[in-house]
Amino acid sequence: MWASEKPSEFDNADSVLLISCWHELFDGYTPDSFQPRLHNVASLVEELVQIAQWWQREPKASVNVKPLKAELAASIKSERDILLRIPTYHSRCLALLEAKSPAAIIAGGRIIIGQRKSYWRAFRRIALEAIANLQSNKKQDAVTSMRRLATFAFQHGKEDDDVWEPFSKDPTKSPIELFREMSCLANGLAKDFQCTLTVLGDKRIMNSTVRAMGHQVLSPRALSDEYASSIDGTNEKPTHVCVEVKAASIRAAVAKARDELELAIGFASLYRNPAELRLHTTAHVVADGYKRTFLQSEQAFRRLHPRARAKSDIKEAIKMTAGKVDHRILAAVRQLALASASTDNRTRFINLWSSLETLAGAHEGENAMERVRELVVPLVISRHVHRTTRYMTILTQRFGEHIGSHDYGSGFRPSKSGRLRLDDMLVTLSSKCKDPKIEELLQFADHPLLRYRLFDVWKLFHDPKYLRERLMQSRERLGWQLARIYRARNLLVHEGREVSHIVPLLDNLQNYLSMLVQRLIHETKRKSHD
Asked: What CATH architecture is 191-295?
């Protein structure tokens, strides 16, 4: 959670709220419940049209239409405030839900896609109104608008390098000024990038091949010091190549450049059959004076923290393999290792999904998708309260360290280290209205985003009916996301097409699989001790 180094700047609470919220949305360790949604109404319409086109080519693809329409219907309901500003767009979206044939979906969807600018303008007007009304204590509308803006950025392949690092982070600016700056950073306008990548292997073959594709071969002296040091230690004679591309984000630029060179490597391997040719995992990116050495294997949006007891957990897991262990668990761990060792998103994606299918093999279901859903959804949803409580605990403790205070309130037992206990946080967040525990915690949380988050989670946890409703919604969204991952896998395997949002799907997939494998190992160890 972002916090200004100058405590006096908390006085400008509305600006601090927006800056902190923007940071949270693109921080790699933010739980997915607080991350931007991958899709909105406009992008779901585009995806539905793509599925309808697939349906025309392959009748079996029709099974993908129903869940996608259900997701679109839910999104129309949640974005009703935007759609009411554009009634024609709204009515056409509702009509699209009733379309029965692929031709009708494609025809209706293309008309809606042509009106996407009106959707953006309606969103922007509502967002500016919400931010202008921050002083009237309507934080929910402003935070919702920020999340929606981040969704637009997400869809353009933006991440922290594109929207957080260049951001001014100036709490003395007005909320409106900050939002306009964020909007500019989030837009999908393409710009020119120069990407330097290195091919390891037979230098003579690659020099002529990449030149034939119109790319420039660089001498080692032309490399930046940072990039040169990142590729030191390779025994092969490398070929350094500069690829110029147009893209909306740094990651998209690197992906396009890698695609170009992977094609060159493929042709060279096909006709010359040389020793192994491969791309180095790093790239140097230059755009508008911006320079950065970029690690391709770095996950984009969700990075998994190492376990607190990692060494002992590893030893216990190894010890467990000496006993009776379901062979599917061990096979899934091996496939996870293959995925982790690869720097190619497509290879990782297929291996991670194969690992999920392996674990789901014993579950009931008419097809692989149903078996995976029956395995993954209950586990992920059952961990929702724990993950949310843990996140609130981490945010609160970090803020306490930032201001040098551990006076969290009467709901927390004293600790010499100042560390908060998760069970204390859960009891506090589920306490009754006007209970001293939650009131004192909110009083301690003198940071606009932290106080908002704690209060929002308290509203959820202390009301069982509301919590159940939210969990059911999360369950439904998770099912849709798994279906989207499965569609992406099938398009990759059967048609050789990579979806534009493969990186966030890959991060979701790795998150679900890691959670699942760790839980299965834990249950296996527990049973062996019974």
From this structure: 2-Layer Sandwich (3.30)
With a CB cutoff of 8 Å and minimum separation 6, the contacts of 165 are none
Please measure the distance between the N-terminal and C-terminal CA atoms of the chain and give it in whole angstroms: 42
Q: What is the mean pLDDT of residues 125-130?
A: 96
Q: Strand, coil or helix: what is 240?
A: strand
Beta bridge partners of 282: 295
- Cβ–Cβ < 8 Å for 454, 399: no
* Nearest one of 405, 455, 402, 466 to 431, comparing CA atoms: 455
CA gap 510, 32 in Å, rounded:
12
Residues 6+ positions from 178 with CB-CB distance below 8 Å: 15, 18, 19, 168, 170
DSSP 300: S
- Specify the pLDDT at position 301: 45
Residue 192 backbone phi and psi in degrees, to 5: -85, 135
- Average pLDDT for 36-46: 96
290-324 core/surface letters (b: 16 or more CB in 10 A; e: else): eebbbebeebbbbeeeeeeeeeebeeebeebeeee
What string of H, E and C letters represents the secondary structure of 120-189? HHHHHHHHHHHHHCHHHCCHHHHHHHHHHHHHHHHHCCCCHHHHCCCCCCCCCCCHHHHHHHHHHHHCCC
Mean pLDDT (whole number) for 449-466: 96
* Single-letter residue type at 268: A
Asked if pLDDT for residue 300 goes beyond 50, the answer is: no
As to burial, measured by CB atoms within 10 angstroms (0-12 exposed, 13-18 middle, 19+ buried), residue 8 is: exposed
**Phi, psi of 240, rounded to the nearest 5 degrees:** -95, 125
SS3 content of the chain, % helix, strand, coil (to 5): 65, 5, 25
pLDDT of 529 higher than 70? no
Extents of the domains making up the chain: 7-30+121-186, 41-114, 191-295, 304-530
